[in-house]
Design a protein that fits this description.
The chain is built from 9 helices and 6 strands. With 241 residues, the chain is an alpha/beta fold. A 6-stranded mixed sheet has the order 1-2-3-4-5-6, sandwiched between helices. Helix 3 runs antiparallel to helix 4. It starts with 13 loop residues before the first helix and ends in a 14-residue tail after the last helix.
Length: 241
Amino acid sequence: MKKDSPWLNEIPKAKVIFDEVLKELQKDNFETKIKNGQISLSQASQLLENKCHEQYRKYEKEVKNRYIVIHDPVKLESSLSQSRMARAGETVEMILQYLLRLLNIPCERNVRYPKGRDGESLDIVVPNIEQLQHDPTKAVIISIKRNVRERWREVVGEAYILRGIHKIPDNIWFVTITCDISSYIVDSMSKLNIRVYVPDECFKEYECYGARPISKMFDDLVEFLKDKGIRYGNLEDFFEK
C-alpha cells in the first residue's frame, strides 16, 4: 500500500490492465490474426501498447477526479506522471514477452545476471537465465526502452558491463516499439555491436544505420535458437542440458 499516494492503490496493476486489454482484443480473434499474418508483430505490439495506455488513462482520470479536490494537485499530478512512465516501461516488456510466448519462443523477464541483488537487471533473456549462465553464447539478452532518446545510453552502459566484466558476447539486442529514436542513436548502438530493432513503420528511415524491423526479430530469434541447437517449440522443455 502506498500511504503517501493512496490514489495509486486504486489504479489496477499493469498486468491487470494488460489482461483486460488482451481479453477485449481476443473478442476479435486477435491472436489468430497475428498467427496468420493479418496483423504484423509490429502492429500487434503497437496496438497493445496504445490500448493499454488508453485503459490506464481511464483509470487515472477516475482517480484524479476523486482526489484532486482533497489533495495537492501538483503532488497528485507528479505522482501520477511518475507512475505512468514506470507502468509504460513495464507494459512494453509484458507485450514483447507475450508475443514471444505466443510464438513459442522461450524467454524470461526481469532477471538478474549474475544472480543476486547486485547483478545487472535484464529485461528479457532468451531462452532463459540458466542458459545464459551455462553458456552465454547460446542466449540473447533483449533490452527494451520506450523513451529511447532519454535512456538509450543506459543500454550502452549495461552492455559495456556485461561484456567487459561478465564476458557476455555480442548477443545483446535492443528493441523499441515506438519511433522515438534517431539516426545517431541507431548508428552509435550498431557500431557498438548492439543489434537495434525498431517498428516496421520507421524501419526504412534507419535501415542504412543498421536498424532491423521488429517483425524480423522473432524470425531472427528462431534462427538463433536453431543455430545453437536449442529446442523452442515446447516451453516446458527447451533448455539444452
